[in-house]
Amino acid sequence: MTAQLPQNPAPGLPVQDVPAAAVSATLVAPAAPAIELINAARWYGNVVAVNDLSFSLGAGVTGLLGPNGAGKTTLLHMLAGFLAPSAGTVHVLGRSPNRDPGVYRQIGLVPEREAVYPFLTGFEYVRFNARLQGMPNSDQAAKDAIHRVGLEDAMDRPIGTYSKGMRQRAKVAGALVHDPQVLLLDEPFNGMDPRQRLAMMDLLGQMAAAGRTILFSSHILEEVERVGNDILVMVAGRLAASGDYRAIRALMTDRPHTITIRSSDNRRLGWALMADPTVFGVELGSDNLTVKTAHLSAFRVLIAGASRSAGVRLFEVISGDESLESVFDYLVRR
Amino acid sequence: MMFTRSVAAVPLMGRVTLRQLLGRRRTILLVLLAAIPVLLALVFRAANDADLTGFASGVLDAVAVTLLLPIVAVLFGTAAFGAEIEDGTILYLLAKPISRWAVVAAKFTGAVGVTAVLVLVSVLVSGAVVLSPLGEQGAEATRAFLAAMLVGSTCYVAVFLTLSLFTRRALLIGLVYVLVWEGALSALLPGIANLSIRQYALGVGNAFWQMQPDEARLSPSTALPLAIILVVASLALATWKLMRFELPGGTD
Q1: Which residue of B has its CA nearest to A126?
Q2: Between chains, do A44 and B2 touch, taking CB under 8 Å as contact?
Q3: In chain B, what are the domain boundaries?
């Protein structure tokens, strides 16, 4: 993975509240990426929904993050072929999805809207999707998809009687019944209980491991963190970051890493660490030591040497702000 | 492959459209509406009024063709796409490897099917009550109005279905067209007969039985081609529009 930190956002149409700088960690995609955007933009009159998006995705799961109004749904609709880009190109599996129904043989879409035909049973709905995909054994394909989302017990009930989480699972089953190469999901975990969420996350992980490209949007960072490491972060219609969130965190050198240490002698260790120029500050707590540093990888080497030379035993070293939440918070507030 | 898949998808989507359109509340309302000509026929029969022209003009034309048919057609025609666009379920059809014309064909056949069945049954039963005792003339009149209802259902649904792809106010515009254009203006301006679906329907009915000339102003040879052109053009426009169907970006 390569990483860079542009000084200014990409030039283009004016967008309000654009971050002063965008962090970019380029995803390593296979030779022919499943999803590729080049300078893609979409605007409605004077309103810019998304602007100058360039990225590519190969097999794996990628979480699409961003605050409300960031352009996540617009991006997913562009990828699903239901919004033509105003500028730039959008390719899914090497072709433009807009006005090309044939591409849906390889795309599965789970829209954000909840509505599913209430008069169909779960099985009828999933089989309907399989039949429209032209699958030869639609009954079996529907049963398999329903099994994958764990909806067997309710498959013969009308969807109108389903809970929100069950409807979501029915939608997912309908979207993956034809085993698509690319799966696009807009807030797929909405309404699911924790057990269903975990099962769905495992399912997405399995599909990614089988070589599928999965892009899902979510407001819940823990969900994204659990499903995979790769993220796309959108802020005010622009791509603020893409790639492994840990790599993105490493690029955020203007924000010190905070490390909490417990050792046999916190005071002595603090003195030893303060001598190093990469350490910004040291704070001695009642039973721990909090250190701020710009370079986490350099600090890992430093702490080992400093503790040894000071004759201090390390009990615990915790990097407290390495979470996706921390990265997301940084990118959105920047 | 795509063509075969699209052809096979039409009855599948058509069945779902039928189930969607036949929601309990809408169906009850429209069945009650369709019962009005039948009730009027029973009143006619009870009054021993064997006036063929009076019944044809006063009930079948003024009530069935002028009110029942367009109202049923506008409700089913605009709901075929409108309801799915409104709730977002249209995506389950459009995100499939099938041609857009197949989606239009399914919606069209589904909406024409329910509209035609409802209005044809209404005319058939009304005709049986009042016109069947009138012998061959009564049978001809019944056939004429059945043909008019069939042509009218097809034309109205094609137009209103297409309209619903262009505006969310298709139902309102459809009702304004029926009540203002066909109701009020056509009475004042006879020249607009060539732009009136009601006239196409009655014109085709003229092939089976001579209707009142001041009501049915077009000959069958004029009405039928105009009706066919209208349906084909509407469905082509609907397919064109559906190919360009876009979703809003959403709030996030």
Answers
A1: B92
A2: no
A3: 2-243
